[in-house]
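Weekly modeling sync, notes
Attendees: AB, CL, MP (scribe)

Item 1: holo prediction request
CL wants a bound-state model with NAP before deciding which constructs to order. AB pointed out that an apo prediction alone won't tell us much about the pocket. Agreed to run with the ligand included and paste results into these notes for async review.

Input as submitted:
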Amino acid sequence: MKPSVGIVGCGRMGTALAKTLSGKGYAIVGVSSLHRTSAERLAGICGISDATDTPWEITRKADVVFLTTPDGVIESVCQSISQQDGFSPSAVVLHCSGAHPSTILSSASKSGASIGSMHPLQSFASVDISQNPFRGIRVAIEGDSEAVSLSAQMARDLEAIPLQIITEGKPLYHAAAVVASNFLVTLMGVAFRLIQQAGVPPEEAFSVLKPLIEGTLANIGRVGVHQALTGPVVRGDVQTVETHIQAISEAMPELLPFYNCLVHYTAVQAAEGNRISPDMLETFLKLITQMGCCINDEV
Ligand SMILES: NC(=O)c1ccc[n+]([C@@H]2O[C@H](COP(=O)([O-])OP(=O)(O)OC[C@H]3O[C@@H](n4cnc5c(N)ncnc54)[C@H](OP(=O)(O)O)[C@@H]3O)[C@@H](O)[C@H]2O)c1
């Protein structure tokens, strides 16, 4: 028989979990939120009557408790439930934050409960869910052994793929997700600004660059980051990089630290992959320093 589930925090993640787990045969025994109206909305979706703004009323009877509040209050919400003896000693208490480790739930662990974190690598933009948002995604899990094995089973039941990570690795794991997702958006924003400055209409910037972006992603998948690198740095074409720096410093000098920082790390990565020599790496590093626009000057 599947464990029963209680949800504290009825926003986007709490709703996605409650709705999808309910559809997979998990009994949702109650939901709680800061505002009772949010809990009542989610209870209505799950077809249950137990909705409250007093979390321990529902957490006591749950085999698994998800604390799906905003990151900043997970620890204090867990503490206040623990102080009210709100966790069964046999419960598994989980949060879904990508940035925080399971150890922020240590107050529940003192009550005898198992603790873990279960972070779906997915963006949940709304509480309106029509399809299973967990299907095929990775769910990063860590915590004590009972929490890890139950989280892995729940991830599989959600049709996701569990990815076990070490507790100490949580901040770096989250930084990786931020770099791959948020910073990709930033990178594209800068590329759009540059191409618009070159005269391409703003509405065409994405469609012009899209095949290049998609081709690069496909190459990374096929041959890995070192071999996927093309362009002036890996060709050792110092003059072209110098031309870029000149043009950017004239048209959009505020973007120079950004450009130079990426030349720096691209050259380092190319050298690591033996695509350029140590001497060529040195040449690129000297170039961005000599042109008075090294990232270090700006910080
Ligand atoms: N959304 C995503 O894309 C995503 C992806 C991966 C992981 N996560 C993680 O999922 C967790 C929840 O994020 P979310 O996006 O679902 O946030 P959200 O949509 O803002 O929902 C958070 C919910 O928590 C409730 N809440 C706030 N303070 C509370 C308290 N003191 N006690 C009880 N409930 C409280 C809010 O209640 P009211 O509605 O009652 O005001 C709100 O419904 C976070 O740890 C986040 O890092 C989110």
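Recorded for review: The pocket of NAP is lined by residues 8-14, 33-35, 38, 68-71, 73, 77, 95-98, 119-120, 123-124 (CB under 6 Å).
Action items: CL to compare against the apo run; MP to circulate these notes.
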